Amino acid sequence: MIRREYLQQGRAFLSGVAALGCCAGGAEQVVRYLRENGAFGLRLSGALCLLVAALVFGWTAWSAWRSGPEAQPPWKTLRWWRWLVAGVLAIFVVLGFSFVDQDQARFLCRGACVLWIALLLSGPAWSSSLHGTLDRAIGGRCFRGLDFAVGNVIVIVLILEVGLRGLAVVRGEDTLMLNKAMGYRLQPGPNPHGVFGNSLGFPDQEFVQAKKTGTRRIAALGDSFSVGVCVPYEDNYLTLLEALLPQTEVYNFGVSSTGPREYRVLLAQEGWKYQPDMVLVPLFLGNDILEPIAVPELLRFNPDALYVELLARRGYRLLREYGRRPGAGKLYGPLSDEGYLELASRHLSICRKVDSPTEQQRWAFALEQLRGLFADCRAHRVPVRVLLLPDEVQISKDLQARALKVRGWQAGDIDASLPNRRLLQFCANEQVPCLDLLPVFEQAGPAAYEPNDSHWNKLGNRLAAEAVAEWLLKPGAD
Is it the case that residue 329 has pLDDT exceeding 50? Predict the structure, then answer.
């Protein structure tokens, strides 16, 4: 009896401390929300969850202090832990699907998890009659079946999560290609659409470290535009660029689905080995700035923290797109009209005149990575040049109008050339030459892009190569 009294007092004390902690955390988030002067958002939603959790913890502490010794607490049973883990996993999955790639979703995720824990530790959860009540409400057999199913789902999810992370450690790379610069490298040899990969997985011939006398070597970074996913190797704009520049080697270090963070990693891991005389950094405005590859950090309690959730989301998107074009009979290729419009509407966000808090953070992150990349080039005493690659939604008025309708925005909410001007100013401040290809592609129009794809076709690659070659051949370009 004395031991139970001590447990009861300890429970009251810990619940009180938890209530104070939730109050402090919720109040801090409310203050930060007020400083941001934003609309009702994810930070405030998380703060409200914490404040409600504080009330639940406070009520639990008061009840425990006034009541007598309780029966064996539920946290000593396996069933309680099953439902605890199930609730947390459900929060991660639901928020991961509802707030895709939104950094501030972590505030709501944390608040919701704390609230779930508070509810499970509250008085009703400690009541010995809880399970009997549930049995009577939904039927004993149904409740036991549900409880059994929840336990099996948890086991499967945990095994899959541990397996994916363990495989990443064993292979030395990220199985889901989330935060490693090598995840999306090509297979050596022929790849789809006539793309060719060398032994390192880059879309080029074999690299050699020794340079020919009198030959300039350019290390070109980039994403799928550098890979040239829609054209054969010989029509890639970087392959054409090498042919247009006299006594110049262009080493193509392009890797699909990468961005400024990965460019810097690739340059450090691979690029400097080949002693380049110049580094070329193409930035695709559609996603290089506002869509960084997710990094699953469990300690941040971001919905993107679980590999399983990311795998499920990617599989869902792939199957949904496949269902939209069943006649195609394949998973890969040009997007459906609906799928491409959704993609274009996401890419349109970079042209919005007023950034959301998440977009502000992503701009800051991308620019920080670029500054680091520029600093690395200066440390190696190698000049660096930046290319701005426009998205089709920036030049096609029809696609732009349809994307605005999807987002529910007005034409006055966006400025198609705004991101280009921002990056031109940034590069000027960093004293890094920058070429904006938007005027070139505004002249060509959508004819330079593959239908429903966002990548350049042969015409687009040729126009880009000619514009870059003319720029680099100007006096002082070295």
Answer: no
